[in-house]
Specification:
- This protein is of the alpha+beta class and 323 residues long.
- The chain has 3 domains: 82 residues, Rossmann fold; 77 residues, Dna Ligase, domain 1, CATH 3.30.1490.20; 118 residues, ATP-grasp fold, B domain (D-amino Acid Aminotransferase, Chain A, domain 1, 2-Layer Sandwich).
- It contains 12 helices and 12 strands.
- The strands form 3 sheets. Strands 10-9-8-11-12 form a 5-stranded antiparallel β-sheet. The protein has a 4-stranded antiparallel β-sheet with strand order 4-7-5-6. A 3-stranded parallel β-sheet has the order 2-1-3, with helices on both faces.
- Strand 11 and strand 12 form a beta hairpin.
- The radius of gyration is 19 Å and the shape is globular.
- The two termini are 20 Å apart.
Length: 323
């Protein structure tokens, strides 16, 4: 019997637009694969909608707060619905940049020095890291709200932007929409060098891609606008560093208990020959420009439809808490 799959997209986060793009791409693939696919724009009535459909599987195409931070996963567990990607704990820990940074350190993986700050710390310049540094939301993705501060002049611009906007706009611009972390950001040393992203599929690190953005860094615009970045596969880095990206990505994936698929982000500094892990993403994007599909195609010859099928078939075998 053909399983019924609901695609959860949209939602409440600032990554809603990208989520809808991922959802449409997944829906197209599932239709071509002859699954019974229903796309749902997630809202406050999602539980009722899911109960009415009673699907065999939920394909999570949500990004950002409430979608990849353990919230929707917890609801699906309560409803007894199987779902794609990682479970509650792995999703929550990976999404929280402060928590994941502690995990990296604890298992011997180098990561940029950093710590948690709030809005007042930034306004008062109560910063303990020298320029340049990176300021980013503790619980967001897609490089939303990320600022690289190279100089005091950059800081003053950031401070003025903060001061000029009311609380609601500030929260949308620089901090997570999740209530528990709304006033928190993470500040960390800026690592110059090469942007690297490694894909893990079915407990195998399948490859590392180098990204060369046309802007200063791989921001939201570069990620989702064709032509704003150059993608090099395999990454043009020393063999030992390439091997290290694979080892570290798989190590974190397995330590957190991630399921089926994940993507880890690194920065490599050729001058110092240092590799530092920035974060792990348990719900990588699934647009035509997304990196995991690019890596899967380049290294394994797996096209987008086949990748969706692999995720679906693997996820149908997973057990929920109630099982």
């Amino acid at each position: 019997m053909t399983p019924t799959i609901v695609i959860l997209s949209g939602g409440f986060s600032r990554e809603r637009e990208i989520s809808l793009m991922s959802g449409k791409a997944v829906k197209k693939a599932l239709d071509s694969l002859s699954y019974k696919a229903v796309e749902i724009d997630v809202d406050s009535k999602i539980a009722e909608k899911l109960k009415k459909i009673n699907p065999d599987l939920a394909f999570i195409a949500l990004h950002g707060a409430y979608g990849e931070d353990g919230c929707i996963q917890g609801l699906l567990e309560i409803l007894g619905i199987k779902y794609t990607h990682s479970r509650v704990m792995a999703s929550a820990v990976a999404m929280n940049k402060a928590m994941s940074k502690h995990i990296f350190w604890s298992i011997g993986i180098n990561t940029p020095k950093g710590y948690v700050v709030n809005r007042e710390d930034v306004l008062k310049n109560n910063i303990k890291i020298s320029y340049p540094y990176v300021l980013k939301p503790i619980n967001e993705g897609s490089s939303i709200g990320v600022h690289i501060i190279f100089s005091h002049e950059d800081y003053l611009k950031l401070k003025n932007m903060f001061a000029a906007r009311n609380t609601e706009i500030q929260e949308k611009e620089l901090v997570s929409a999740t209530p528990m972390t709304r006033d928190l950001m993470i500040i960390e040393e800026y690592i110059s060098g090469v942007e690297l992203q490694t894909a893990v599929l079915l407990d195998e690190a399948i490859g590392t891609m180098e990204i060369r953005p046309k802007n200063k860094f791989y921001n939201y615009e570069a990620k989702y606008t064709d032509g704003f970045a150059e993608y090099i596969f395999p990454a043009e880095i020393p063999d030992n560093i390439y091997k290290m990206t694979l080892e570290h990505a798989l190590k974190v994936h397995q330590f957190l208990g991630c399921k089926t698929i994940s993507r880890s982000d690194f920065r490599y500094n050729p001058k110092k020959n240092t590799l530092k892990m920035l974060e792990i993403n348990t719900h990588p994007g699934f647009t035509e420009l997304s990196l995991v599909p690019k890596i899967a195609k380049s290294t394994k010859g797996i096209d987008f439809n086949e990748l969706v099928k692999i995720i679906v078939e693997d996820s149908l075998q997973h057990k929920n808490i109630k099982d």
